[in-house]
Specification:
- It is built from one helix and nine strands; from the N terminus they run αβββββββββ.
- By secondary structure, it is an alpha/beta fold.
- It has one domain (about 10-155).
- About 25% of the residues are buried.
- It comes from Blastococcus mobilis.
- This is Cell wall-active antibiotics response 4TMS YvqF.
Length: about 160
């Protein structure tokens, strides 16, 4: 008869922590799915879009020239918002981002004027090809961001 070897002491001590960590991740993912089911609004042809994502990726390519607002809530997720296919908006587009341990890339045409407001721990930056404006009302793209341990990249497309 063959006897099984006992689990090493380190593995025995780590097992409850690993189970707890994976349980936490599963609960956050489930909470994100339920929240997304309740809060997601609009599609790529809408004038206003809202998306909630956890643990997954987002690729959004709006195509409505009348787009006025995009709201993104990201937790442990990554996203790409491609506005490069849109003409210059008359009143500007507001992009509101709330991100926790998440990142977002926003691609816009190179001739757009961009304004942003950033709060939190993380960063926001451009690829250098975009024109930043200090006047919020004259901007073609206005980014309002609250980020914890994440970042937002603005790039010309």
């Amino acid at each position: 008869m063959r006897r099984s070897r006992p689990m090493p002491p380190l593995a025995r001590r780590m097992l409850p922590w690993l189970v707890g960590w994976f349980t936490f991740q599963a609960l956050v993912a489930l909470a994100g799915r339920v929240t997304a089911w309740q809060k997601n609004v609009g599609d790529e042809s809408s004038t206003s879009i809202r998306r909630v994502f956890t643990h997954t990726g987002l690729e959004l390519h709006p195509r409505n020239p009348q787009l006025s607002r995009v709201r993104l809530d990201l937790a442990m997720a990554g996203g790409e918002l491609d506005l490069s296919g849109l003409p210059r908006p008359q009143a500007g587009i507001d992009v509101t981002v709330r991100a926790a341990m998440a990142g977002l890339a926003v691609r816009v045409p190179s001739d757009w004027r961009v304004w942003w407001e950033f709060r939190g721990i993380g960063g926001i930056g451009t690829d250098g090809a975009l024109q930043r404006t200090r006047d919020e009302h004259a901007a073609d793209l206005r980014v309002h961001a609250v980020v914890v341990l994440g970042g937002i990249g603005l790039e010309a497309g």
